[in-house]
Write a structure and sequence with these properties.
alpha/beta; six-stranded parallel β-sheet
Length: 350
């Protein structure tokens, strides 16, 4: 394609840098504008990436003055909704970071605006682009581990001292199941389908000065009688991990977005194990295989590649606004269940 897509990045801190890293490597992309409420950060990124871009501290001024094809929204979570809506109404496609928003009603407004304006809205649920998780889904869809019966994922990430610029992470509305474990919930939705009910428990023992619970465990009912579990902790003392385990009637997959391999356990059939790099026999009937994968756990470049192909070639998006909204619907149900101490039915509105 000869056309260069004109990009603007709103939010130039850590998430903004991740997006800039992906965008500057794409030859058919031109970054025409940067925006951040802290102009010094904006100017710093312009110099760091040697960009011929204009800097703004108000996205509305940016939208008024610039010709933009795609706006990347990489701000604090609370700002996603109004910036996305403004960009869509200004005639831009939008790539919005996860979580799409903190409340389902906000997601609904974002989706409605995209539909009304005839623009693409993509949500940065980056786990769907991580090589290990992509491989795991491929194995499940090929029936390698048989029929799923239990799936689990976790978001374990120590936020101590990581409140972020202007303390955006330590917001009273940013429950960890929304701000962090939306990754794990979206991943399981992608693999097992939309859950219909949840029962959840939360506590607050690690980041006691933060205004939200720091640990949540959610049990989920998925279609086809599949049971699921999501664990999240933003105060745990361990390395960051999104370890995910998929149990099927013929085998089990263990995958972590921080490991260079995926573990696959399969039973022997006529003494012939699945040819995937056998490491060792675990029992007489089960064989462990190790499948190499890349550790690209924040594959933002691939997100932008998909967005570019959707805009220029009409290819379907993977992580649409509707997908992002349905993930937040599950997250909100988990929060509600943890607060009321009862199971909550999950109702999808988009």
């Amino acid at each position: 394609m000869s056309k260069k897509l004109k990009y603007a990045v709103v939010g130039c801190s850590n998430f903004g840098k991740a997006h800039l890293n992906g965008l500057v490597a794409m030859p058919d992309v031109e970054i025409v504008a940067l925006c951040d409420v802290h102009m010094d950060i904006c100017e710093e990124r312009k110099q760091e990436y040697k960009l011929n871009a204009n800097c703004y501290n108000d996205h509305r001024e940016m939208l008024k003055n610039e010709e933009i094809d795609i706006v990347t929204v990489a701000t604090s979570d609370k700002a996603h909704t109004h910036i996305t809506i403004d960009a869509l109404e200004a005639g831009c496609h939008v790539m919005c970071e996860k979580p799409m928003a903190l409340f389902t009603e906000e997601c609904e407004k974002m989706v409605e605006t995209a539909d009304r304006c005839g623009k693409l809205l993509m949500v940065g649920q980056v786990c769907r682009y991580a090589p290990g998780f992509v491989k795991a889904k491929e194995l499940v869809e090929k029936g390698i581990i048989g029929e799923l019966y239990f799936v689990e994922s976790e978001y374990a990430h120590d936020y101590f001292g990581r409140e972020g610029v202007d303390n955006w992470r330590a917001d009273k509305d940013r429950e960890p199941i929304i701000g962090g474990a939306c990754h794990a919930i979206d991943l399981l939705r992608w693999i097992a389908g939309d859950p219909v009910e949840t029962m959840a428990y939360s506590n607050h023992k690690m980041l006691t000065k933060w205004p939200v619970n720091d640990t949540t465990v959610a049990i989920l009912k998925f279609p086809n009688d599949v049971i699921g579990k999501v664990f999240t902790s933003i105060g745990c003392k361990r390395d960051y991990t999104m370890r995910t385990v998929l149990y099927g009637t013929k085998g089990t997959i263990i995958v972590n977005n921080t490991d260079p391999y995926l573990e696959l356990f399969l039973e022997k059939i006529d003494g012939a194990p699945f040819a995937a790099g056998q490491l060792a026999d675990i029992t007489e009937k089960v064989v462990k295989h190790s499948i190499p994968v890349s550790i690209n756990n924040h594959n933002v470049a691939m997100e932008h590649q998909h967005m570019k192909e959707a805009v220029l070639e009409g290819k379907p998006l993977i992580t649409t606004g509707r997908e992002g909204a349905r993930t937040i619907t599950v997250c909100r149900a988990v929060v509600e269940s943890a607060k009321c101490g009862m199971p909550v039915k999950i109702t999808y509105t988009v």
